Amino acid sequence: MNSVTTPEHSTTSLVKASALAAVLAAIVLVICILPSEYNIDPTGAGKALGLTQLAGVQPMPEQSAAADKRTDTVKIEIPAGKGLEYKLLMEKYAHLEYEWHTGGEVLYFDFHGEPKGDTTGYFESFAITTSHQMKGSLTAPFTGSHGWYWKNTGDAPVVVTLSIKGNYTIKG
Q1: SS3 75
Q2: Which of 17, 53, 73, 158 could be 105's S-S partner, Cβ–Cβ 3.0 to 4.6 Å?
Q3: Contact of 34 with 47, CB cutoff 8 Å
């Protein structure tokens, strides 16, 4: 048969082990946790290890300054059998609320964005469909131009009424 012997520890050895664990925890607290979490570095070891950089909070860009927020309504004529783009320049995380409609005529459209400085032709579509209206909001995922491409497959011009509100510059 197998016999298992369980070691018995004296009270003295348990107190020593607990004291050692408390000392090690205090060292880890002072050298690692305080510098990396709270930017408190009493020993200078946190800076030497690069841990104080972890505590630095990256500031969020100023988003919704009331002075930058604007509201516009424009009428855009899409010629028969043609397509037209309407673009807004937006910073990353800028918010836009929009609504557009026609007089009931259905248009193909692509609501998309193109990153600033990109020369590859990349764009990201947010909505592609056919409709006579759309309402929604966008928080720009990147700095660049964001807007709509409408295509009129009919034989008469169609007027799109676009209402927009947010932080943007009209590119047209």
Answers
A1: strand
A2: 158
A3: no
C-alpha neighbours within 13 Å on the C-beta side of residue 129: 6
Class of domain 69-170: mainly beta
Task: Determine the Cα–Cα distance for residues 82 and 152; give it in Å rounded to an integer.
Answer: 6
**Residue at token pair 């005529």:** 105
Over residues 79-132, the pLDDT tens digits come to 999 999 999 999 999 999 999 999 999 999 999 999 998 888 888 989 999 999
Q: Model-level pTM?
A: 0.60
* Cα dihedral 136, 140, 141, 146 sign: positive
Query: DSSP 3-state assignment of 18?
Result: helix
Cα 110 to Cα 128: distance, rounded to the nearest angstrom: 4
- The domain spans of the chain are 11-55, 69-170
Q: What is the DSSP letter of 117?
A: T
